[in-house]
Specification:
Blueprint: H1 9-20, H2 24-37, E1 42-48, E2 54-59, H3 66-72, H4 99-105, E3 108-114, E4 125-131, E5 134-141, E6 146-152, H5 159-164, H6 168-185, E7 190-194, E8 199-203, H7 209-217, H8 219-223, E9 225-232, E10 253-260, E11 272-276, E12 279-281, H9 284-293, E13 306-311, E14 317-318, E15 329-330, H10 333-351, H11 357-365, H12 380-395, H13 415-420, E16 452-457, E17 461-466, E18 469-474, H14 475-492, E19 498-508, H15 511-519, H16 521-526, E20 530-533, E21 538-545, H17 553-568, H18 573-588, H19 598-610, E22 624-628, H20 629-635
Bound molecules: adenosine-5'-triphosphate and magnesium ion.
Length: about 650
Amino acid sequence: MPSVRILPDQIANKIAAGEVVERPASVVKELMENALDAGARRIRLEVADGGRSRIRCTDDGCGMLRDDALLALERHATSKLRDLEALSAIATLGFRGEALPAIASVSHLELETAPGQPGAAAGPGTRVRVHAGKLLDVAEAGLPAGTSITVSNLFVNIPARKKFLKSEATELGHIVTLVTHYALAYPEVHFHLETPHRVLLAAPPVAGHAERLQQVLGEELLGQCVTFQDMAEWAPEPGPEGALDAEVGETGLGLFGFASRPEVHKLNRNSTFIFINRRLVRDRLLQHAISSAYYNLLPNGVFPAVLLFLDLPYGEVDVNVHPSKTEVRFRRQAFVHDTVRDTVREALSAARPMPSFPQERRARATASPLWTRPPSADPPSAGLPAAATEFHLREAPLPPQPQRLPLAAAPERTPAAAFAAPGFVPETGQGCGLREVPPAADPDADELALLRPLGQIRDSFIVAAGPGGLWLVDQHVAHERVLFEQFQAQRLRHAVESQRLLMPLVVELDPGRAAAFGELATELAAAGFEAEPFGRSTCAIHAAPAGIAAEQIERLLQEILQVAVLQERGLTLEAVRTRIAATIACHAAIKINMRLEPAKMEWLLARLAETQYPMTCPHGRPVLLRYSIEEIQRAFKRIH
Ligand SMILES: Nc1ncnc2c1ncn2[C@@H]1O[C@H](COP(=O)(O)OP(=O)(O)OP(=O)(O)O)[C@@H](O)[C@H]1O
Ligand SMILES: [Mg+2]
């Protein structure tokens, strides 16, 4: 029988490293977090070969004395957690005492550190070298106050892991993304990231998050986002005996951030970044809250870009639930979820953003992550094809191809050209080539009410003049939005209008839909249908929602029944209702290729102006495009 033994430290460290150190970016994350915990005001990162051969992180934080420096490389050695109680309210980014020994066990690590306070002379410096977990030497050294950690030959003793590393460009891309986002969370800290070939990020301290966003990701991006901010009081929570929670009301849930306007479309969730008490985390609950905020504003299968900062009492969130500290658990999940959803939704609604022509052009390019810079390699020439290809690949499958109108005056640089630009700092894909064009002033939402229709193009798009520019309105989706909101309001009041058919309409249903017909009976009735099963695979419709042409009724019902299939995939009842409403609105709306009288156009624009979200149809497609006066003047070369 094999005997049970405690693993030697070296093996234990290597196992821990498997969890802590996945790739070079994980090392950067741990080093950066340590520097931030040490109170650094300046963090300088140098990486070579995508971090695979060398990562150096230098900070001007509190530094360490010789004994602490040695201890820091031992497992479970930390200065950040004193007792068990502290574990339930963690205020620092690190707390396990795992990172340094884990990294040191799979690389060549050099730690140089000297204690010191800002402005005061540095204390005695120490240099420690560890090779694959073995202490090589410790020496005194004259060093500036702060800490510098150099990690070379990552995974020197784990060839399998090394093989799994991606290309230099990809690994560097991960590092850039990470550093950029930590920079966003700590605007008061000076971040610097460079490779032997170029500086990738140089971000001196700035006043706040908005300034930092502008500094590292570009002003244009700011224009594509709405800002949200809220401080929510904790909802009272009954204690075990029904008594109210003593902490309630002490400190609320602070949230702040940026959310992309609905016309910005991302192909995946990678453009959402969530910080909880300034810790970058992945959180499915909050991802869901964000998706709910955009519900019906974005087409299926596309995602927004969101930067969310949540601040809450340390005791309200457990950060000790994941080996790499990237997941958390909230004490009051539902409250946090709903607050985030409602705050973001309100901000989107209040801003009522409308795409102008340049924004449409940008929307095309934003198929790459909004907050991330596509990975590039250095030397630059090596990275270009990869970056450009990636950009292109992501761009192509965008579901709604935003219209691109040849009115634009400014030439657009290709993404590749933007990558080659000198002094390139991390910026967004959509920033490429459009920097020269100052974003047009935000269209005033109230301008919508003042639009004067001039005519139609191809009997499909209404051309309208407004005080601030020229507008194009997709007549079908505009009417869809109007009907959708009207229907939702009627549904709430249980006052959906219905039309009785002269003769019952008998509809054949396939087995899936026949089953769905039974399940959705109540919802169908609430939506204005009066229908009953008629044999095993047919139903008879006696009444249908008002406004639907007779020949459309059958297709409408068939489409709605499809919803039940989706419901099996976990749609909430509310979502099912919304889908039914959107389907009905779509069928009842004015079609394209339909001539409209001027009075009808006026009526449509006026109704649209009254809606809550006039800029997108219930399926998320844009309703309006605007060509501002400035853009017109610029196109005619009246201004520059
Ligand atoms: N840049 C630094 N400046 C000052 N002290 C540091 C620095 N990096 C590490 N330390 C010290 O070394 C200790 C060990 O660091 P390590 O990252 O291994 O653990 P931790 O940060 O406490 O927890 P975690 O494993 O969760 O990151 C820290 O608690 C801190 O006291
Ligand atoms: Mg740490």
